[in-house]
C-alpha cells in the first residue's frame, strides 16, 4: 500500500518527469538520427561530455547561457567528429559511437580533475542550474497546478521539442529528406541531393538534443557533474526510439514508460528491497518493453497480412 | 535538330577497365532512340556519364548544340536531362506526392505546401496520361505504377531528355504495352527519349533509331527501318546468333517428379497455389507460363524445399519432398536456378571459385578427409568450369559481383549442372541476361534434356517457353488455366489470353494432360 500511495502522489509525478526529461531529449535525437539511417551509439558520450562542459562553462562565466552554449558546443563537436568519421571516412557507425563513449568516459574525468582537482564530482565549483518555472495562473489551480507547474525549464522544453521535431520530420522539406534518406538513400541521391549533407544535419540535430539531455542531468536534475552520471541513459534512449518506432510521439511515450520504472526504483529504495535489485528495474523494464513491443509488432504484421488477404 | 551529342566519350575506371572507348552518341529532338548492347557492353556507363553520375575520362557533351560540363546529377537535371534507373529510386513508406517533390519541395512558410504539391502531381498525371493517386503509399503500388511515378518525377523536374534504363525488365506484357503508349505520347509532345534495352522486339516497336554498343565501342547508329533483327544481333554479339532455338524431338522417359493436389496458402488462408497436380518426366522440359505473382514462385519454392506447403504431396523419384530439407533435396538430384540470382543465387562478395563450390562443401574430392581445402583440385575444377561455360572473367578468383549479369548466371548454371542433377528447376534463367549468354543457357538446358534429365522452366519470356518446352502449363491465380501439349497449336496471343485468365481449358483436360 505504501508503494501505491507513493506512486499516486504529486511527488512521484514530479520525480517521474524529472527522470523522463533527459530520456525524452536524447531519444528525440535518436529519432532524428535513426530516421536518416544512422544509429548513433555515441549518445551516451555526447550526453556525458555536454553535462560536464555545461557545468564548467557556467561555473567559470557565471552565466547559465554561456554554460548552455559550451555544453551545446561540446555536443556538436563530438557529433561532428562522429559524422566526419562515419559519413566522410565511411567508418562503421557502431565503432564510431563506441569510440565517442569511451573517449567521453576518460575525457570528462580528466577535465574534471584538471579543473577541480577531484575525480568524482564537481561539487567544489559552483555550477549554474536551469531554473524551475511556475506557470502563472495555472499554478494556483488545485491538482492541475501541482501537476503542471513548478517543473524545470528544460522539462517543459523537452516536451515542446517533441512537437517541434514532429513538425520538422513530417511537415518540412528537410524532414521529408531525412525520412527519405533513411529509407532509400539512392532516392535522395538520384534527385541530386547530397546524402552526406542530410545525414550530417540529422546527426547535428541529434547532437543538440543529446547535449540538452546531458546538461539537464548536471544542471537541473543535480546541480553538479558526477563521473559516469549518464549511467546508460543514452542507450535507454535508443531503446525508447526503437520501441517508439522512431516516431516522436511514440518514442516520447516509450521514454515515459522507462522513466516510470526509473522513478519507481527511486521509491523502492526507501523500502527494504535490496538496492541492487531495485537499480536493475529500469533496465529490466527496458528489456521487457522491447520484447513486448516486438511480440506486438509481429502480431500486428500477421493481422495486417490476414486482413489484406481476407 | 540534335537534342544531345556525346563526342568521343572514353571512360577508363581506376582499375584499368575501359567501359567506353571513343563513343559518339547522337540523338535528335523528339525521337525515341534505342541504346542496345549486351550486358556489360557499357550502355549504362555511357548514360551515367550523361546523367552526371560518372565523369568521362575524355570526350565532350553537347546539349542542344552547346557544350556542357555535367559533374553531378543536379547539373544534368538543370539541363533538362532525367534518368529512370533500372532499380527504382523510390521511398516505399512515403506517398506518391512526397516521392515526387523530394528535393524540389514547395514551401508555405516553413512547411511543405502539400495542397499545391498534390495539385501539381494531378496536373502532370493528367497532362501525360500517367494518373496516380497522389496520396497512395509507394509500397502499395504495382511495379508498373512505380515506373510511372519515376517518369513523372523526371518530368516534373523539367526534363526534356529522358533516359530509361531497361524499363521493361520488370514489367508484365500488359504494363509494357501501357508504358509504350505513354512513351509514344511523350514523343509526340516533343520529348526526347533514350531507351536502353536489348530486347529487339521492343526496340523495333518503339524506337526510331538504334545505337549499338559492343564491348565499350559504338557499332554505329541505324534507322530501324534499314536494319534487320539478324544484323542488329550480329552487331551486338559480334557473331551470328541463332534467334530461333534448334531442338530435337524429346524422348519422354519415366516419371521423375509427381506433384499431387498441392496447395500453398498465405497466412490468412488465401491459396497462392491452389490444388495443382502434374508430372514431370525424364527427357522433358515442362514450361510454366503466367503473369508474375500467380503462384509460380511458390511452386518453385516448394519443389526446391525453400517454401512450405499445406496440402498435397510432392514426390521426387517416389520420395516425398519436405519443407526445409534442402540438403536432402539437392542430394536426391534437384538443381535450382533461382529467380533472384543476386540474393539467393550467389554470394556476391565471394569469388567465382567459391561460388562454384557453394553446393559441394561435402564433396570429398575438394575437401578431403580432414575437411581442409584441396586447393589444386579446386583450382583445376573452377578453371574447367570457366572454360566450359565460357564465363568471361579475368581470373576465377575475382569477386563474382564484378561480372556482368549474364556471366553471373553462367556461374550459377555451371554450379548447378556440375552437381549432375536429374531435375533442374530454372526460374527465369535468362532474365536480364544478354543475347549471347541467353543462347548458351538455353542450349545447356536443352542438352540436359537430351541427356535424359528433366527441366522445370518458369519464364516470363514467351519466346523462350515456346522454343524450349515440350509441354507448357499456364498458371493463373494459383491454378493451371491450361496445359498445352502441342506448342504449334497456339500462338503468343492465345497464350496471353490464358495468362490473363480470359480463357481457361476444361479442368479435366488440364488434369489429364498435366500427367
Q: Can you lay out the helices and strands and say which pair or pack?
A:
The complex is a heterodimer of chains A (310) and B (515).
Chain A: H1 2-7, H2 10-35, H3 43-61, H4 64-88, H5 93-116, E1 132-133, H6 144-148, E2 151-152, H7 153-171, H8 173-183, H9 185-190, H10 195-221, H11 233-243, H12 248-268, H13 275-309
Antiparallel strand pairs in A: 1-2
Chain B: E1 2-12, E2 18-28, E3 32-36, H1 43-50, E4 58-63, E5 66-68, H2 73-78, E6 81-84, H3 96-101, E7 107-108, E8 111-112, H4 114-127, H5 143-156, E9 161-165, H6 173-188, E10 192-196, H7 200-206, E11 209-214, E12 217-223, H8 229-237, E13 255-265, E14 271-281, E15 284-289, H9 296-303, E16 311-316, E17 319-320, H10 326-332, E18 334-337, H11 341-345, H12 352-356, H13 364-367, H14 375-388, H15 405-418, E19 423-427, H16 435-450, E20 454-458, H17 462-468, E21 471-476, E22 479-484, H18 492-499, H19 507-514
Helix pairs in contact in B: 15-16
Mean pLDDT of chain A: 90
Helical/strand content category of chain A:
mainly alpha
Radius of gyration of chain A: 20 Å
Strand content of chain B: 25-35%
Low-confidence stretches of chain B: none
Oligomer: heterodimer
Number of strands of chain B: 22
Tell me about the biggest sheet of chain A?
Answer: 2 strands, antiparallel
Any idea what the shape of chain B is?
globular
The assigned CATH architecture of chain A is Orthogonal Bundle
* Strand order within the widest beta sheet of chain B: 6-9-10-3-11-12
Question: Roughly what is the average pLDDT of chain B, rounded to an integer?
Answer: 88
**How many individual β-strands of chain A?**
2
CATH topology of the largest domain in chain B: Rossmann fold
* Name of the CATH first level of chain A: Mainly Alpha
**What is the total domain count of chain B?**
2
> Taking Cα atoms only, what radius of gyration of chain B do you get, to the nearest Å?
25 Å
Q: What is the CATH first-level class name of the largest domain in chain B?
A: Alpha Beta
> Could you give the distance between the termini of chain A?
49 Å
Enter the CATH topology name of chain A. Answer: ABC transporter involved in vitamin B12 uptake, BtuC
